[in-house]
Amino acid sequence: MKRVDGTLLELAEEPGLWLPPEPSHAVVRADGFCLVTYGRSAWVHRVRLDGEAVEPAVEEVRALLRARGLDEVTWWAGERSTPPDLADRLERLGLVPDDPAAMTTLAVAAPPAGEPRVETRRVETFEEHLTALEIDWAAFDLAPEERSRRRAAARAAWPLIAADGRSAVFLAYLGGEPVGFGRAVYAPWAGLLLGGATVPEARGRGVYTSLVHARWRESVARGVPRLVVSAGPMSAPILERLGFRRLGGVRLLRDRL
Q: Does domain 119-225 have CATH number 1.50.10.10?
């Protein structure tokens, strides 16, 4: 069980390494860390450094960002990261807590609690995929010009996502209208929950729970009856009520060039 827990913890702490394929998705595997880029976003995962190597690694990441025309990155300092005081060392180097400043890693290996009360369907077409993304963008109140740019990127990414087959997106419907979405990527050990959102007028009606159950059923169908996630402060308490157990925590530190 400890070996399984360690694998699930590592999976939960490195979501950027498991993102669905996209033309802009890249992973730089350096000595002691991985830099993940996805569009204009960047994360440092799988940090395994000696204490003396932290400052040189920060400078190396900054150089990699500049070479790619990026100006900020978030370091994930989790239970598996080394040195153990990585987050404190990063703060002393000028990095600041991100928003959110911390995530909780969670896992479930049995059917989640609660009842799926809302219709859910797996996304099968680009149009459905775009509908899910529009719900996500609305939740984060993205500017119209940014949404336009992301629509073009989504169209380019869709053939790669469909061919890859590792991920699944589900839409939730009320009265025949799409009101929420949830995404997961299925690794050999578990399904990794990678985002979801519900439109404001549909909240409190079981959409979130139904989407968790949809992704659980998919994990069972794929022969990996486990789900893991790095959850923010709003999602973590809900998932714990659904039977997810805490694996650990991750501190997020942002570096702006």
A: no
- Which pTM was predicted? 0.93
Whether the ω angle into residue 23 lies within 30 degrees of 0, i.e. cis, is no
Share of the chain above pLDDT 70, in %: 98
Compute the Cα dihedral for 76, 77, 82, 87 and give only its sign: positive
CATH number of 2-102+250-256: 3.40.630
Domain range list for the chain: 2-102+250-256, 119-225
Instruction: Answer whether residue 123 shows pLDDT above 80.
Output: yes
pLDDT single digits (tens) 175-231:
999 999 999 999 999 999 998 999 999 999 999 999 999 999 999 999 999 999 999
Q: Is the pLDDT of residue 2 over 80?
A: no
Helices (H), 68-206: 86-92, 126-139, 144-164
Q: How far apart are CA 199 and CA 207, in angstroms?
A: 10
Equal CATH topology for 2-102+250-256 and 119-225: yes
